[in-house]
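Hi P.,

Sorry for the delay on this. The queue was packed all week, but I finally got your sequence through. Input first:
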Amino acid sequence: MPGVAVVSDTTAYLPPSVVQANGIGIVSLYVNHGTERTDREADITDLAGFFDELRSADQLPTTSQPSVGDFQAVYGPLLASGGEVVSIHISAGLSGTCEAARQAAEALQREGRG
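Then the structure:
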């Protein structure tokens, strides 16, 4: 019987050891510094340094939700193995992340992959 995979996003700030030990899929939100877009998961590895920079920043960065394609890239391989996906994210009232996750799941279902 195929298992259930857990997917979350980088707003959960799960320790890498927990992610790896439990095979959790992570979808990254984006951090925007003016016109510079930084992938949160891949490029901000020093959270203490990042928060130190925020304390002295003239302009605070903004965030943007992952794309539907970002979710499909994580969901697709998990579903291909025959399992189910439980996806846990930041509140829909705070971000469009949940809506992007729903759209990705629906698209994969229409394609017969979910």
